[in-house]
Amino acid sequence: MRSLRALHVFTALCLGAFVAAQNIGINANGAAPHPSALLDVDVTALPANGKKGLLVPRMTTVQRNAIPAPAEGLLVYDTSLNEFWYFDGATWVTIATLGNLWSTTGNTLTVLVDRLGTSAGSNTLEFRANNERVAFMEAGTPRTSFGHLAMPPATGINNTALGGSALQNLTTGANNTAIGVNTLRTATTGGSNTAIGFEALNANTGSRNTAAGYRALASNTSGADNTAVGFLALSTNLTGSRNTAVGYQALRDNTASDNTALGYNTLRDNTSGTNNTAAGVRCLANNTNGSQNSGMGYECLQFNSSGSGNSAMGHSAMESNTTGSFNVAFGVEALNANNGSFNTAAGIYAGDGITSGQYNTALGYAALPGTTTASNNTAGGAFAGIGGNFTNTTAIGSAASPTANNRITIGTVLNNNLTGGYGTWQNFSDARFKRDVRTDVPGLDFILRLRPVTYLLDAEATERKSGNWQRMDTCTVKDHRATYMQRIAEVSAQRQTGFIAQEVAAAASAIGFDFDGVHHPVDPNDTYTLGYELFALPLIQAVKEQEVLILELEAMNEELKQRVAEVEAALGKTDVQQ
Residue 312 forms beta bridges with which residues? Predict the structure, then answer.
């Protein structure tokens, strides 16, 4: 009976199987097994309604786990879980139900419940490439990571990393957002940082920093409360805090604190300077260690390096300044060439010629245009102080022009020096501060030598001397030039009264009088001037001298009258006697 059963098995195998040297084929058409298969089961020859499959061993989870020493690759169907399981050499691994798998070539979602993710009870989801983390998400504790080796799973809460190595070393830091390759890469415990762009906040360990742009705040370590927006903005900052940089390379080399830069290359080279504010293309671009500077305008304070306490507003205002400090410039190219200190200029081109001069004040369009190295000058009015590079002068009025050091000039020839008001001019005069007082002021001898005259002023020659004529000669505004030329003609036609300074000087010299009412030129650029109020003193002395003469004449007159009376009386007595 046993032999008969074996015969039947052998006959069945012969009818439906083809046995080769190293492999077996089971089919209905007698085809040889594929050379690469040890067992080749082929159902192609079976009728359409007679196809059959391969049935693997079926067992419960308990039975599966009880298999002694399972071989690597052993496959079973778990009836407890309704899943296929295989042994990977170390543990049993499930083969998910094919209907729940996501295809590498895409899936067609047909119902609202189709989804990718983990089932209830599992809070984490991780993606890997080459067995290295490329994405991680966690429910409950907000953490989101996308990018090769981006933020690890075990970190603080409310962190988001998007980009390769973004937040790669974060441990307990919280409330961080990193978007871009290597953004916030070395951050460990810092919190509330935001980085957007390649290597933005790459080395950061501080908190509350915001960086947006290629390598923005890339070197920052412990610096906090910084904001950088733009290519390489604050890219070198290490420990500096409370800086704000918005613009291409704004505060690029900065390592200090409390600086604000808004614009292309603003405060680009600043390293240790603090409390600087720059707004405008290349404003304070070359500042290195200067502090407390404020600039607003295209290229204003552009070349300032170590100068401190400067304030400039306007296109190219104080552009050339490098080491000058405590200057104020307001207006296009105001103090444009300056490298001195303690200068103040307000107005377009105001003080634009000053180089190393100090303590100058220029108020008005192109005020103090002739001042370069001189100091202690004050000018108020368009082109005021146009005369030259003088020291300690004051010019008030449009084109008012001192001609020497220590001179105050109000107005120009065009207003005939018609200066006045409702009070008298007061000069300093106090006996407590006067020494070597003498009563040697001449009177009549000096006054009688003076020659009062009337004259016509050559206004054009006067304007040429001051330099104002050359300025107006090149003026492109026709109305301005026409008005100017009309005024020149009017002043030249007005007859005026006065002295000739050279004649007054000669009269004083003739009697040895050192008369300070005459100013002698101190250089070829200077002119003679007269202080007409000082003529009152010789006049007073002359009146006093005349008073002495009058008294003498009155005494003589009284004596003569008495003598006449005596003579008349004598003559009258004689007549009576006769």
Answer: 295, 329
Write b or e for each residue in 88-121: b if 16 or more Cβ atoms lie within 10 A of its Cβ, otherwise e. eeeebeeeeeeeeeeeeeeeeeeeeeeeeeeeee
Domain segments of the chain: what residues? 2-54, 67-97, 126-242, 327-411, 439-457+494-578
Nearest CA to 504 out of 515, 488, 489 is that of 515
Cβ distance 216 to 197 under 8 Å?
yes
pLDDT tens profile 290-348: 999 999 999 999 999 999 999 999 999 999 999 999 999 999 999 999 999 999 999 99
Spatial distance between the Cα atoms of 368 and 363, rounded to a whole number of angstroms: 8
Q: What is the predicted pLDDT for the residue at 101?
A: 64
Average pLDDT taken over every residue of the chain: 88
First vs last Cα of the chain: how many Å apart? 226
Whole-angstrom Cα distance, residue 327 to residue 321? 10
Are 409 and 393 a contacting pair, CB within 8 Å? yes
- Collapsed DSSP state (helix, strand, coil) of residue 551: helix
Contact 391, 407 (CB under 8 A): no
> Crossing angle of helices 478-493/459-466, nearest 10°?
130
Give, in degrees to the nearest 5, the angle at Cα 43 between 42 and 45: 110
- HEC secondary structure over 452-484: CEEEECCHHHHHHHHCHHHHHHCCCCHHHHHHH
Place of tokens 């090769």: 148
Tell me the pLDDT tens digit for each residue of 424-457: 888 888 999 899 999 999 999 999 999 999 999 9
Contact between 350 and 331 (Cβ < 8 Å): yes
Residue 494 falls in which region: left (phi positive, over 0), alpha (psi -120 to 50) or beta: beta
Structure letter (DSSP) for residue 193: -
Lowest-confidence region among 22-36, 262-276, 413-427, 552-566? 413-427
Residue 246 CB coordination number (10 Å): 20
Q: Report the DSSP beta bridge partners of residue 77.
A: 58, 84
pTM score? 0.72
Pairing state of beta strands 17-19 and 24-26? Answer: antiparallel
Q: Which two tokens stand for residue 331?
A: 């207006």
Phi, psi of 570 (to 5 degrees): -65, -40
Contact at 8 Å (CB) between 129 and 147?
no
- Please say whether the dihedral angle defined by the alpha carbons of residues 530, 531, 535 and 537, taken in this order, is positive or negative: negative
Tokens representing 549?
């003469």
Calculate the CA 402 to chain-centre distance: 38
